[in-house]
């Protein structure tokens, strides 16, 4: 094991220890030490605390996947529609970046009004959050394509479609994949936050419910579960990204 | 078939303006030029005289405002990789493709089967001294190597015309001379019609059968010099020196005008 990993484990152990000591002195209703979270996590995972946990997780997974697929589809479509025609992207990019800069939670109340309390508003929020990194990555990627290699491709006989498939797409892959990964993380956040802010099903709903009923240990256990969801999703994204990077090796040169 | 004496490339009264923010800049003014089959012509001129524009128009990458270009008697209406291959000062390699895959690009577009084009690309990289570098990416190659890959990529099209826009302009002097010799070797073997744009008198004298000097912007043909020096050419020998003087006389005023007007 490398020194870095050892050091990380050391830091983690230190933090958990500090948490244990610190939580033991506080109000047990608000502060849960790891020694209480671990058994709670065991009960959650054995489906004792929440017998319907799997169906809640299924709802959340469905919302994340739907939100992300929609975010990618919309992001790619709008990105290419705005980015490929000359100068159009330059017009819209600052606008999109400005919208992106608005704290997205401010949109959520209106999404609930439009889409109701069910899955639709969570999906909409996940789409809204995941969409921006994708569209901005497409625009940035297209803007960074060296016009000279497009000229070269034309001279070698490439028409507009071939230029798109064989030059633009490979040239923007690295940027695009980074944007797709950021979008995925944000879609997950959007769905979970949406569930926490108001839902009747899903992991976020359980988290909010546990906290609302002062089941603090369950709350912490569920938060760890949410963390696991995020980590798994991100690991999958990282794996895909490294594959894509290998595929476009040299794009940075 | 056309008679051998008919020009391979005919440039007829081509004019071109570039539209800039303030005002149109005339780049070419009614320029005409004939290039015979298998001829090696160098277009020499001060920077900004429109020689690159001329080459883009011949290659079908830019559309002239007036006049026309004919290749083997047919008007040019766009890039035609079966007739013309182009090489630019910036090699413009595709960074996500290996050297070999770069050379294959044009063949790929023409639908040549993978095995065939791989073999042809390999056969082109070997004589340019890039054997063993087939799997390298452009960022792993030196400037001279990149340009050789770019030339191999152009040669892979096996077009009868080679248009070269200051292809060695970004290379150091020694590499430039070696690449020139290497290009002459290729030309001697393949006998392509070559139009070679440069601002280097030395390069023009070493390479060409004919040197065409352009005026400062808007570009026109100012003078044409036949180069009848035996190979290998010695730049220090008397005939080369005389030619150099004549070229310099022709180009000096234009360079000065370009300097005055170009600021």
Verbal overview:
The complex is a heterodimer of chains A (253) and B (263). Chain A has 253 residues and is mostly helical. Chain A has a domain at 53-195 and 229-247: MetI-like fold. Chain A has ten helices and no strands. The mean pLDDT of chain A is 89. In chain B, β1 and β2 (24-35) form a beta hairpin. In chain B, strands 6-7-8-3-9-10 form a six-stranded mixed β-sheet, with helices on both faces. The longest helix of chain B has 25 residues, at 238-262. By secondary structure, chain B is of the alpha/beta class. The chains are: A mainly alpha (253), B alpha/beta (263). At the A-B interface, α7 and α8 of A face α2 and α4 of B.
In short:
With 253 residues, chain A is mostly helical. Helices cover 80% and strands 0% of the residues of chain A.
Strand order of the largest sheet of chain B: 6-7-8-3-9-10
Record field, number of beta strands of chain A: 0
- Terminal-residue CA separation of chain A: 33 Å
User: What gap, in angstroms, lies between the N and C termini of chain B?
Assistant: 49 Å
Q: From N to C, what is the helix and strand string of chain B?
A: EEEHEEEHHHEHEHEEH
Regarding quaternary structure, what we see is heterodimer
Helix content of chain A: over 70%
Count of DSSP E strands of chain B? 10
Helix content of chain B: 25-40%
CATH superfamily of the domain at 53-195 and 229-247 in chain A: MetI-like
Task: Assign the structural class of chain B, choosing from mainly alpha, mainly beta, alpha/beta, alpha+beta, or little secondary structure.
Answer: alpha/beta
Element order of chain A: H for helix, E for strand = HHHHHHHHHH
- Greatest interface: A-B, 23 and 30 residues
Percentage of residues in DSSP E strands of chain A:
under 5%
What is the gyration radius of chain A calculated from CA atoms?
A: 22 Å
């Amino acid at each position: 094991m490398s020194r870095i990993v050892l050091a990380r484990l050391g830091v983690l152990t230190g933090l958990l220890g500090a948490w244990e000591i610190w939580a033991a002195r506080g109000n047990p209703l608000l502060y849960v030490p790891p020694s209480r979270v671990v058994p709670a996590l065991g009960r959650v995972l054995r489906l004792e605390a929440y017998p319907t946990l799997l169906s809640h997780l299924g709802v959340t997974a469905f919302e994340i996947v739907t939100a992300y697929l929609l975010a990618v589809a919309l992001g790619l479509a709008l990105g290419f529609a705005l980015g490929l025609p000359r100068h159009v992207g330059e017009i819209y990019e600052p606008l999109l970046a400005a919208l992106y800069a608005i704290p997205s939670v401010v949109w959520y109340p209106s999404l609930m009004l439009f889409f109701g309390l069910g899955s639709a508003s969570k999906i909409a929020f996940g789409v809204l959050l995941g969409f921006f990194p994708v569209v901005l990555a497409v625009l940035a990627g297209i803007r960074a394509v060296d016009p000279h290699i497009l000229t070269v491709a034309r001279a070698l006989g490439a028409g507009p479609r071939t230029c798109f498939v064989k030059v633009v797409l490979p040239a923007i892959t690295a940027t695009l994949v980074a944007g797709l990964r950021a979008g995925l993380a944000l879609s997950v956040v959007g769905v979970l936050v949406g569930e926490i802010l108001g839902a009747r099903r899903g992991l976020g709903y359980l988290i909010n419910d546990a906290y609302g009923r002062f089941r603090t240990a369950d709350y912490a256990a569920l938060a760890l579960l949410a963390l696991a969801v995020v980590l798994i999703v991100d690991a999958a994204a990282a794996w895909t990204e490294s594959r894509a990077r290998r595929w476009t090796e040299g794009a940075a040169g | 078939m056309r008679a051998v004496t008919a020009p391979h490339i005919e440039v007829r009264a081509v004019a071109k303006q570039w539209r800039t923010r303030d005002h149109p800049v005339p780049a070419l003014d009614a320029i005409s030029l004939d290039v015979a089959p298998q001829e090696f012509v160098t277009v020499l001129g001060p920077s900004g005289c429109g020689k690159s524009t001329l080459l883009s128009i011949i290659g079908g990458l830019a559309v002239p405002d007036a006049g026309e270009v004919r290749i083997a008697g047919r008007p040019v209406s766009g890039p035609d990789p079966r007739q013309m291959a182009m090489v630019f000062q910036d090699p413009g390699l595709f960074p996500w493709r290996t050297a070999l895959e770069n050379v294959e690009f044009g063949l790929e577009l023409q639908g040549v089967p993978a095995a065939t084009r791989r073999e042809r690309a390999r056969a082109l990289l070997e004589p340019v001294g890039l054997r063993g570098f087939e799997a390298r990416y452009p960022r792993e190659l030196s400037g001279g190597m990149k340009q050789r890959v770019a030339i191999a990529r152009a040669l892979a099209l096996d077009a009868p015309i080679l248009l070269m826009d200051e292809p060695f302009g970004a290379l150091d002097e020694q590499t430039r001379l070696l690449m020139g010799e290497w290009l002459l070797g290729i030309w001697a073997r393949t006998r392509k019609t070559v139009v070679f744009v440069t601002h280097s008198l030395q390069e023009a004298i070493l390479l060409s059968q004919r040197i065409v000097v352009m005026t400062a912007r808007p570009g026109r043909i100012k003078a044409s010099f036949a180069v009848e020096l035996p190979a290998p050419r010695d730049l220090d020998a008397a005939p080369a020196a005389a030619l150099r003087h004549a070229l310099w006389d022709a180009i000096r005023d234009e360079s000065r005008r370009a300097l005055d007007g170009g600021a």
